[in-house]
Each structure stands twice: as structure tokens, then as C-alpha cells.
Design goal:
Blueprint: H1 3-95, H2 99-113, E1 120-123, H3 125-147, H4 153-156, H5 159-176, E2 182-187, E3 193-198, E4 201-206, H6 207-227
Parallel strand pairs: 1-2
Antiparallel strand pairs: 1-3, 3-4
Helix pairs in contact: 1-6, 2-3, 3-5
Length: about 230
Amino acid sequence: MNGIEQITARIQEDSRKEIDAILAEARAEAADITAKAKADAQAAGEEVVAQGRKAAAEREDRMASTAQMECRKAVLTAKQEVIEEAFQQAHKQLLALPREKYIALLADLAVQASVTGREKLIFSSPDRVQVGKAVVMAANEKLAKAVAPKLPDEVTGSKAGAILDKVVAGASAVLNGTGMLTLAEETRPMDGGFILSDGAVEVNCTFDTLIRLQRGALAGEVAKVLFE
């Protein structure tokens, strides 16, 4: 091999070594890039999975919270319906009282609501006919007794004494300007109870109104009885 061939061979050998080094470096760099890409892809995939799991858990919590809220609403609505039914039943029982107890109840209400003792009682058309006069008489008797002097028991124990007691009560009522409730000619649509009228001033003693006014105070007690 002459000198030129030796030089050429050396150049070729050097070039091959340089090319091999470049290729090795490129392969190593490609391997690093591939490994990094795989690691990044795996990390990204794990992050996506974690985010998906978090989103699913949050959605599950929201759905559970919504379900609990709807359940509470349904229970509350059901309880309110039961309480309403209880008050309706109370209204029905008041209307179903025996006549004497119904009259006594309305007379007591009239006495409690009366201010002057000279008001008019307005009833529904059926109640005016059936119990109106009896309620007015019973209420006036109670109002008269409230202002009458108490006679000894030995006086009121006899039939004559009882009559005397009524006379004294009546006279006391006249002197005090009370015990003079009257039955109004007017009637109004109502379902039990009455309206106490004194000119422009009226006191609503209908069962609907009395139950509605008492509902706020009694609803808690009714709920305790029904649900505890």
C-alpha cells in the first residue's frame, strides 16, 4: 500500500469513527427523548386519571348532597302535610261537638272576646238558627255573673235562691252595662264560630281564624306529638 492509499484509509477510518460517535450520540439523545416522552406521557396520563377521579368524587358528593337535600325536603313536606291534616281534623272535631258543648264553647269565646258586653254576634245561617240564641243567652249569663255579688251558698242552694241569684246577676249586669250581647240579623258564610261586631269594630272568632292564629304556637307541640 503506497502513501496515498494509507492516507485515504486513515481518513476513511477517522470518518467512520466520527460517524459512529455521532450516531451513538444521536441514539443516546433519541433514547433520552423517548424516555422523557414516555415519562411525561405517563405523568400526564396519571394526572388525567387523578383529575378524572377527583371530578367523579366531587360529582358523587354533589349528587349525594342533592339527594340528601331532596330527601329532607320530601320529609319536611310530608310532615307539614300531616300537621295540616291534624289541624283540619281538629276543626272537624270542633264542628262535631255535641250541641250543648258547642254552645258552651261559643259562649266562652264570646265572653273572652267581648269588651263592652253589648256587641252583636254574627253567625253562619245554619248556626244562627240552631244555636245563635242559646249562645247569646249563655254568654250574657256568664257576663252577668262576672259582675254580680256572690250570694251565700245557703241562699243559692234552693230553687228560690237560684232565681234570686239570677235576678241579682241581671241587675248587676244592667248597672254595669254588660251582659247585653245580641243576636245579629245578619249572617255570613263561615264554618263554625262567630264574628263579634261592635259597629265598625269586629272580632273574628270563626274556627278557621282561631285555628290559624294558634297554628304558629301549636305547630311545634303537634309535631312533637306526631313525630317523636
